[in-house]
Write a structure and sequence with these properties.
alpha+beta, Pseudouridine synthase, Structural Genomics Hypothetical 15.5 Kd Protein In mrcA-pckA Intergenic Region, Chain A, 3 domains, eleven-stranded mixed β-sheet, four-stranded antiparallel β-sheet, 7 helices, globular
Length: about 350
Amino acid sequence: MDELTGIQDTAWEDDETELETGDAEGAERVERIRIKTDKRQEPIRIDKFLMNRVEGATRNKIQQAIEDGNVLVNDKTVKSNYRIKALDDIVLFETRRPESQEIIPEDIKLDIVYEDDELMIVNKPAGMVVHPGCGNYSGTLVNAVAWHLQKENIDTTDLNRVGLVHRIDKDTTGLVVIAKTARSMNELSAQFKKHTVYRRYIALVWGDMESDEGTIEAHVGRNLRFRKVMDAYPEGDHGKEAITHYKVLERFNYVTLVELRLETGRTHQIRVHMKYIGHPLFNDPSYGGDRIVKGTVFTKYKQFIDNCFAVINRHSLHARELGFTHPGTKEWIQFSSTLPQDMEDVLEKWRVYTQATFKTK
């Protein structure tokens, strides 16, 4: 924890989490230990083998490292039940934060939706990284929050545990809760872990959704080849359980405006789940939404899509509502935010296009 600001990196996973175990932004993956088994090696589960070889390791930590792809055997990821054999080349990686952990307060304007002595609700704009990391050491939400706390003359020595309870991605807009006391951090983190926090997102997705509402269930974990993106694992043999509920709000034939409610909170959960069912987020470069997925081959349509991409040059996702039990009053509180201007503008373009193209004759 930084002594100046009292801000600590203890965020639970959310659907757009930027920093987590594995190839986290702001962390460097380095080789911790490399083992070459000898010719007389007996078959033994790799999690048990490493637990006995790595100082301070527990079986849970080893299994998590394996799950996150931080254990390779002969240059390939394995499962915890893999049994090592003679002459296996085993590598265990670990993630390390940059050496400088200092959070520098910066005078950056915040859109504060609500604030009291326990917590803050901030409406984050597109393009703002939540927490400093590699390549983003300034201009983040945390830098702005640090300045705000100083401006309020808060005695940071009393803030033993303060920080982000959850996060949303750089290009996702919307509501983020920030704890200002140790009690708030502990209690809000527990609510996120128990999945009792209400989170509603609005997204524009490719395609005409078949059903007006439904539920997507598929584990979400890191892609086994490309570690910076996530993937869906419907059989549940990799990743963590993930459940997303959706409801159609408006249809535009080739794209659909949907409401998404998270039952669990996994990294990029919404983006991964929508890609999994064939409806990636509009203009999402990481999950196949930054190209024409549905529509015609006509040049005019391609030009229209290019114009839409220029209007919203990010994935079309907004964290609209956030509700939870207040850690102090124990009462349920809920907040909402309006759609950002770029989403409003691209929706209006689609309304005009749909009316002109599919109007009843």
